[in-house]
Amino acid sequence: MPDDLDANVFGPYAVPDTARRRRAGLVYVAAAVITALGIAAGLPRGMWVIVVGFLAIAGYHLVAGRNLAVRESQALETANRETSFPVGHASAAVGFVGWLAKPVWNVLVFSADEPPSERGLVRVDGISGDVVGQYVEQIPPEEL
Questions:
Q1: Which 3 state secondary structure label does DSSP give 97?
Q2: How confident is the model at residue 139 (pLDDT cuts 50, 70, 90)?
Q3: Residue 87 contacts by C-beta under 8 Å, 6 or more apart in sequence?
Q4: Tens-place pLDDT, residues 86-100
């Protein structure tokens, strides 16, 4: 495999924790405080709208910044346990669901036989580790 396509060349990669959103929330709180101090120092009173906007955005970031408790390897293990076939190749990607952007691992799995005869998608909650959904199908012969 060429080096530019081989993920192992760069070493292990870890998906950043979604709790980093809280830092952005704190930045918006600081911006609201600075703007409020500016209003107290003589800026136009209409800028209170901006303070409220900053606080609303900060609140969203602070609420949506939940810890990604389930890491990629745990999601892969959960998907392996949930499928009815022995898993060969698998891939996991984190996605987000709903207004609060709840993290969910989308794990694509293929059966261990060569070529794979089955494939599936297992969705694992990134906070609790519970299986959110699962879909398994036979791979049609024309796709092999």
A1: strand
A2: confident
A3: 79, 80, 109, 110, 111, 112
A4: 898 888 999 999 988
| Interatomic CA distance for residues 99 and 31, integer angstroms | 23
> Which residues lie below 8 Å from residue 121, measured CB to CB, with a gap of 6+?
106, 107, 108, 109, 133, 134, 135
Q: What does the alpha-carbon distance between residue 23 and residue 30 come to, in Å, rounded to a whole number?
A: 11
* 3-state secondary structure (DSSP) of residue 65: coil
| Other Cβ atoms closer than 10 A to 117 | 14
Q: Could you tell me the pLDDT band of residue 52, with boundaries at 50, 70 and 90? A: very high
**How many angstroms separate the CA atoms of 111 and 124, rounded?**
19
80: helix, strand or coil: helix
Residue 25 vs residues 52, 84, 94: alpha-carbon distances, Å:
13, 43, 22
Tokens of 133: 């959904």
Q: What angle do CA 132, 124, 19 make, to 5 degrees?
A: 115
Instruction: Write out the two tokens for 135.
Output: 């879909």
